[in-house]
């Protein structure tokens, strides 16, 4: 199991691609500018578990890529409040039906 709390201590980390892993919850990563989630089916649940608003967790995010999330019905809370977001790519998330 990956300890996601440790990611918060990596101040110079700006990009990460998570692939086929279970994400228990997210931590605040203020320096992140690119986040790619590939086949991470519990993405939405991870935000619910942490009670975190996406704009608080990733305030400087510029690029978000979500692919093949089979269980994602809606986007994470606070996504529309990330003013730095320039690119949002969502593909092959066939259950996605709720937009903010």
What is the count of β-strands?
4
Number of domains: 1
Helix content: 10-25%
- Number of helix segments? 2
Overview of the structural elements:
- This protein has one domain.
- The longest helix has 8 residues, at 43-50.
- Strands 1-2-3-4 form a four-stranded parallel beta sheet, with no helix packed on it.
- The N and C termini lie far apart (31 Å).
- The chain has helices spanning 43-50, 54-57, and strands at 15-19, 34-38, 63-67, 87-91.
- It is of the alpha/beta class.
Task: Please render the helix and strand layout as text.
Elements: E1 15-19, E2 34-38, H1 43-50, H2 54-57, E3 63-67, E4 87-91
Parallel strand pairs: 1-2, 2-3, 3-4
Protein traits:
about 100 residues; globular
Q: Could you provide a short overview of the structure?
A:
The protein contains two helices and four strands. With 100 residues, the protein is an alpha/beta fold.
């Amino acid at each position: 199991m990956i300890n996601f709390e440790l990611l918060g201590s990596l101040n110079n980390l700006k990009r990460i691609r998570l692939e086929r892993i279970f994400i228990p919850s997210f931590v605040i990563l203020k320096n992140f500018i690119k986040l790619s989630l590939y086949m991470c089916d519990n993405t939405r649940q991870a935000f619910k578990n942490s009670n975190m608003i996406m704009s608080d967790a990733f305030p400087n995010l510029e690029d978000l890529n979500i692919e093949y999330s089979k269980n994602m019905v809606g986007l994470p809370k606070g996504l529309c409040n990330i003013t730095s977001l320039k690119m949002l790519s969502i593909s092959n998330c066939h259950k996605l039906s709720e937009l903010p």
